[in-house]
Amino acid sequence: MVHFSPEEKAAVTSLWGKVNVEEAGGEALGRLLVVYPWTQRFFDNFGNLSSASAIMGNPKVKAHGKKVLTSFGEAIKNMDNLKGTFAKLSELHCDKLHVDPENFRLLGNVLVIILASHFGKEFTPDVQAAWQKLVAGVATALAHKYH
Amino acid sequence: MAARLWRGEDPTFPCRGQGSATPPALVLHRPPNPGSPTPSSRRTFASFPTTKTYFPHFDLSPGSAQVKAHGKKVADALTTAAGHLDDLPGALSALSDLHAHKLRVDPVNFKFLSHCLLVTLASHHPAEFTPAVHASLDKFFSAVSTVLTSKYR
């Protein structure tokens, strides 16, 4: 069970309050598909993914990114019970979506990089460390029900 | 192709033609602002504490001169590598031997450092850190890591 100190929780929630979930979600998913093109395997029906600009401007990518990041917001409200929060989604990703959990780690790290580019100096090493712990916890929780 | 990519000249790669897209090499070569000197090393030690096990002989407290000096060594090696994209194994041969026979850093740690290098670059140069540049840099760090662990067994 991942335990977050009060400082770690504060580092996460204070930054999250300033994040535009819709924009950041689209950017995170878009960058995942650009930087790690093999992740496009899950999105055959998304239309034009032929270049970085096509991917970043693709409306389905933006919509799905927003959905994913909104769900991430739930994690932040339940940092003491990530496994419980993501139990159903974990089953879904295993049984229906067949997503290798390595992809959760990749997306989590892309999200951290986006936060760094948005927040610059404010994204200190200690703030980053709290977020790394969170994205690792989310990735583990989403993989927990795999069989 | 990798070298052309690095210099922003590849016609098939998205970053060309995007106006002020900065070739990845320039992003790496530009020194960080004096006001925000947080090195990737500090981020790596903070986010991935297991990486500290390779430096029992170092003072790892913030501002450590040893960490700064070592970080510069790593950055200089990356700059050298960036100038030899078409022959990374050749350019990094000595470092590859060193990591295989003396340092023996577990391969997972190259991913941790690469990630923190990307975080540092993104936080210092947000406007230039486009998706295409991000992709090139990730690919570059991955290629360097592969070469440095290539003689492990």
TrEMBL record, chain A:
<dbReference type="InterPro" id="IPR012292">
    <property type="entry name" value="Globin/Proto"/>
</dbReference>
<keyword id="KW-0479">Metal-binding</keyword>
<keyword id="KW-0349">Heme</keyword>
<dbReference type="GO" id="GO:0042744">
    <property type="term" value="P:hydrogen peroxide catabolic process"/>
</dbReference>
<dbReference type="GO" id="GO:0005833">
    <property type="term" value="C:hemoglobin complex"/>
</dbReference>
<dbReference type="InterPro" id="IPR050056">
    <property type="entry name" value="Hemoglobin_oxygen_transport"/>
</dbReference>
<dbReference type="Pfam" id="PF00042">
    <property type="entry name" value="Globin"/>
</dbReference>
<dbReference type="GO" id="GO:0004601">
    <property type="term" value="F:peroxidase activity"/>
</dbReference>
<dbReference type="GO" id="GO:0031838">
    <property type="term" value="C:haptoglobin-hemoglobin complex"/>
</dbReference>
<dbReference type="InterPro" id="IPR009050">
    <property type="entry name" value="Globin-like_sf"/>
</dbReference>
<dbReference type="GO" id="GO:0043177">
    <property type="term" value="F:organic acid binding"/>
</dbReference>
<feature type="domain" description="Globin">
    <location>
        <begin position="3"/>
        <end position="147"/>
    </location>
</feature>
<dbReference type="GO" id="GO:0031721">
    <property type="term" value="F:hemoglobin alpha binding"/>
</dbReference>
<keyword id="KW-0813">Transport</keyword>
<dbReference type="GO" id="GO:0072562">
    <property type="term" value="C:blood microparticle"/>
</dbReference>
<dbReference type="GO" id="GO:0020037">
    <property type="term" value="F:heme binding"/>
</dbReference>
<dbReference type="GO" id="GO:0031720">
    <property type="term" value="F:haptoglobin binding"/>
</dbReference>
<comment type="similarity">
    <text>Belongs to the globin family.</text>
</comment>
<dbReference type="GO" id="GO:0005344">
    <property type="term" value="F:oxygen carrier activity"/>
</dbReference>
<keyword id="KW-0561">Oxygen transport</keyword>
<dbReference type="InterPro" id="IPR000971">
    <property type="entry name" value="Globin"/>
</dbReference>
<protein>
    <recommendedName>
        <fullName>Globin domain-containing protein</fullName>
    </recommendedName>
</protein>
From TrEMBL, chain B:
<dbReference type="InterPro" id="IPR000971">
    <property type="entry name" value="Globin"/>
</dbReference>
<protein>
    <recommendedName>
        <fullName>Globin domain-containing protein</fullName>
    </recommendedName>
</protein>
<dbReference type="GO" id="GO:0031838">
    <property type="term" value="C:haptoglobin-hemoglobin complex"/>
</dbReference>
<dbReference type="GO" id="GO:0042744">
    <property type="term" value="P:hydrogen peroxide catabolic process"/>
</dbReference>
<dbReference type="GO" id="GO:0005833">
    <property type="term" value="C:hemoglobin complex"/>
</dbReference>
<keyword id="KW-0561">Oxygen transport</keyword>
<dbReference type="InterPro" id="IPR002338">
    <property type="entry name" value="Hemoglobin_a-typ"/>
</dbReference>
<dbReference type="GO" id="GO:0043177">
    <property type="term" value="F:organic acid binding"/>
</dbReference>
<comment type="function">
    <text>Involved in oxygen transport from the lung to the various peripheral tissues.</text>
</comment>
<feature type="domain" description="Globin">
    <location>
        <begin position="18"/>
        <end position="153"/>
    </location>
</feature>
<dbReference type="GO" id="GO:0019825">
    <property type="term" value="F:oxygen binding"/>
</dbReference>
<keyword id="KW-0813">Transport</keyword>
<dbReference type="InterPro" id="IPR050056">
    <property type="entry name" value="Hemoglobin_oxygen_transport"/>
</dbReference>
<dbReference type="InterPro" id="IPR012292">
    <property type="entry name" value="Globin/Proto"/>
</dbReference>
<dbReference type="GO" id="GO:0020037">
    <property type="term" value="F:heme binding"/>
</dbReference>
<dbReference type="Pfam" id="PF00042">
    <property type="entry name" value="Globin"/>
</dbReference>
<dbReference type="GO" id="GO:0004601">
    <property type="term" value="F:peroxidase activity"/>
</dbReference>
<comment type="similarity">
    <text>Belongs to the globin family.</text>
</comment>
<dbReference type="GO" id="GO:0072562">
    <property type="term" value="C:blood microparticle"/>
</dbReference>
<feature type="region of interest" description="Disordered">
    <location>
        <begin position="1"/>
        <end position="24"/>
    </location>
</feature>
<dbReference type="GO" id="GO:0005344">
    <property type="term" value="F:oxygen carrier activity"/>
</dbReference>
<keyword id="KW-0408">Iron</keyword>
